[in-house]
Amino acid sequence: MRTIEPKAKYQMAMDRFPSYDDAPRAFFALDGNCGPVSVWMLLRHFRKRTSSERIIRLCRYTKRHGTFTIALALALREHGLRVHFHTEVDPAPMPIERRLYKTAEKSGVMMGEALRVDQLLARIRRGEVAIVCCDTDTGDGHFSPLLGVEQDRLILPYTDQGGMDVEEFERRWTAPGICRQCVFAVRE
After folding, report:
1. Which CATH architecture has domain 6-187?
2. 83 vs 128: which has the higher pLDDT
3. Is the Cα torsion angle 55, 57, 63, 67 positive or negative in sign?
């Protein structure tokens, strides 16, 4: 049996993963579209068809706030995926987030404590796919799927460079207000 080298394995994952450029045009009209686009990417990855309008609605997108990580977890769950949501305790959740946490628990989203980077990467290496939230240079949160790690560089297809080194990711993922949030989704 032929062994696939890690680099080839992750390149194959990237090749099979939907491209941002293929996302429905409705997402490009949104300011801060990273959450809905990331959900669309995972749904396409799992071969789940749906409309962009439904994704935007299920992500609870608003012009004022964009969306929240827990809302992405709910959107994926409402499309029939098994979903795990991990976070630190949020010191100042918004009222909508508090409601979404309650709805997520009732909907079957499995809630867990925040992961360390090594735990997150171990799950990614086992073939799981995640959406992570990390800080940007402007201090806003940004969502991207996390597909793998190659030579200490994370494969984040919805970032400017398509990824970032582990140290930079850890700094951005542990920034104030980000709460080391991530969502894992798998088929039921």
Report:
1. Alpha-Beta Complex (3.90)
2. 83
3. negative
